[in-house]
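Today's session is about reading a structure prediction critically. Students often jump straight to the picture, but the first step is always the sequence itself: look for stretches that repeat, for charged clusters, for runs of hydrophobic residues. Only then move on to the predicted structure, which in these notes is written as discrete structure tokens rather than atom positions. Here is the chain we will use throughout the hour.
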Amino acid sequence: MQGPAPRYDIRLDEQNEINLIVTDNKTGTTIQAQRVKLRKDKTQRKWRIKTEEGKYRYFDEDNLRAAALRKKLDDIPIDEKNIRNNVEASIFQLGYHYPNDKSRYRSLAKHKLWAYSRSLWINFVRIVNYMTRISQRALFWQKLPQYIINLCFNMYIIVNILSINKNNHICPVKLHFSAI
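Below is the predicted structure for this chain, in token form.
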């Protein structure tokens, strides 16, 4: 979730689901919230606490869901968070050159072919950057003609399979590529 950490950490009481327990992250004190009677929607639940300034701070079920989601996200290990960041970066790169969030291609087949080729290119650049970073002789392996020919040939095969599969109705190849 975006934004700074909230001042109040809220959770329902385990013994009584009606009570809300509020912890002030700034002072570390725990406050028992009072239930508020609503005039309009009787099905909604709402609570309030009195702040240090003497004003009331209200919490509803949306705040409770957001706090539970924030807690769940905090419990995710760092390795899984990094994977999620990589996936989000790939999705961002896929749609980066969309002016006004519009595609340049008008048919579904053309748009899918563009998405597959763009995904292949994004992954290709990431693999090359990774290999360059971990290789001790970074430029030597890239200059080998057999490496470049092999890489281009593999890309050529993948693009041909994608383009031929559309017209082959007798024996279509069931390939599933992900744009991520």
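Discussion point for the tutorial: The chain is about 45% helix and 15% strand.
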